[in-house]
Specification:
alpha/beta; 4-stranded parallel sheet; 9 helices; 52% helix
Length: 196
């Protein structure tokens, strides 16, 4: 699934559909943020505002989101989309997103459920209630694929402060990946535990 472009699309379209229950495509967004010496961070302020609107009851939120989407026709691959606002933008359902257009260009028929949470970080997704809600969603929906887009907000949250310490972009990126990658592994493991 994470191989060549052709094999990724073929997996969705069914021509080389794997017998595995789930393919997992993890896209890490890591942004290098230039050194910022200003005392305010408008982007960090916007992130903080988004984070104030995170679901208070993740399990109820997941159940509501799962109930909103139509049922999947038999034999149609199912995609669960999780992550931050980038995942919300590429989600298949609804707004003729880039992701949906590309799938249609390749003749792919899929259904999806989007559980993206704008403003979320990898650290938020591994917290007990959110991770439990994700596992519940995976057990109920039984996706063939999980599309995850995370780490953009992790970068936004940590990179400007790291840059202020005088560390290089590489050092700051290494710190970011050192924190985010273990979280991504926990999320992937939780998905596989919920639906092997």
């Amino acid at each position: 699934c994470c191989g060549s472009r052709g094999s990724f699309w073929q997996g969705f379209c069914g021509s080389t559909y794997s017998p595995c229950h789930m393919k997992l495509s993890v896209r890490l967004l890591a942004w290098t943020v230039p050194v910022v010496y200003a005392s305010t961070h408008p982007a960090k302020d916007a992130l903080a505002e988004l984070q104030n609107s995170l679901p208070e009851d993740p399990q109820k939120w997941v159940m509501d989101r799962l109930a909103e989407a139509p049922n999947t026709p038999a034999g149609t691959p199912k995609v669960m989309i999780i992550g931050d606002s980038w995942a919300d933008v590429v989600s298949v359902g609804g707004n003729q997103s880039f992701f949906e257009r590309k799938l249609k260009e390749h003749g792919c028929q899929v259904t999806s459920k989007c559980l993206a949470i704008p403003g979320s970080t990898s650290g938020m997704w591994v917290k007990g209630l959110v991770l439990s809600a994700l596992k519940l969603a995976v057990r109920i929906y039984k996706p063939d694929y999980v599309w995850m887009t995370l780490v953009g907000n992790d970068a936004l949250d940590s990179m400007p402060d790291c840059a202020k310490t005088g560390k290089s972009a590489k050092e700051c990126a290494d710190e970011l990946i050192g924190t985010a990658l273990p979280n991504i592994y926990k999320i992937v493991d939780a998905i596989h535990d919920a639906y092997p």
